[in-house]
Amino acid sequence: MKKYIMYYVILILVLILMGCKNSQQQNTLGNQEEQKSSTKTKPPEVPMLTYEVVDKDRYDAPIKTQIELHAVVSGKITESNLNQLLQKLYYEANSTRDFKYHGGKPTHVFIYLYTSKDHFRSGMGQWIVMLSKIGEDSNVDIRVRKELITQLNEKPEIKDSLTEIKRKEIFRAIVLAEDRADADAQRMYPLPDPGKPGCSQAKASEELKKQSQEYNNLMKKYESELAKQYKISQEQLNDISIEGLTKNWPMP
Prior knowledge:
The chain is α+β, with helices and mostly antiparallel strands. It has 2 domains: about 50-150, no CATH class; about 165-245, no CATH class. The protein is built from 7 helices and 5 strands. Strands 1-2-3-4-5 form a 5-stranded mixed beta sheet.
């Protein structure tokens, strides 16, 4: 009987040891799965972009207190780190408490981010992402030009034997030609001063029509000169104009 009891005790001990071993293995596997799950769910770290504030304007009046900030970003630009930087700059702006009106706080906040100083200097709204808050109790609105972010990682192409650098040069020349044609047309057919006697809606409409026609005539002339200068066709000029606008190339 003692023999059978001993065998029984040994068998129980073996089963207990095996159970402990299985339990340890299960715990180990459980910990490994937990670590894997933790790794999968952990959000990737987003590197903060380098930036330079190129303009900051404040408006302090009873009607509103406003901060408008323009900054140029650099580094590996993604939608995530652009949003991260916007939130940082907004927090700093919204934490301002030195205004004279509205309890020292800004009621309006505008933040614009650009990929170069040339984009900012153009004054043509060539930002890549912007944040706005209009009104003390209003929501924050963020607008992202996703197509421009995607294009940042594209390699420069050669089209019609023209490098991207050369096409950007031509695009700049086209924009300058448009500005020149507009200025020349306005000088030739200025709109009447509404504050002077004899001015009428009909006269203003007539001058505006002449101005528009002259602009079109001058643009044909200036574009013909550009095509001759760069030894390209009118069709290539049109393609470069569209490409420049689509890719947000800096305007002069």
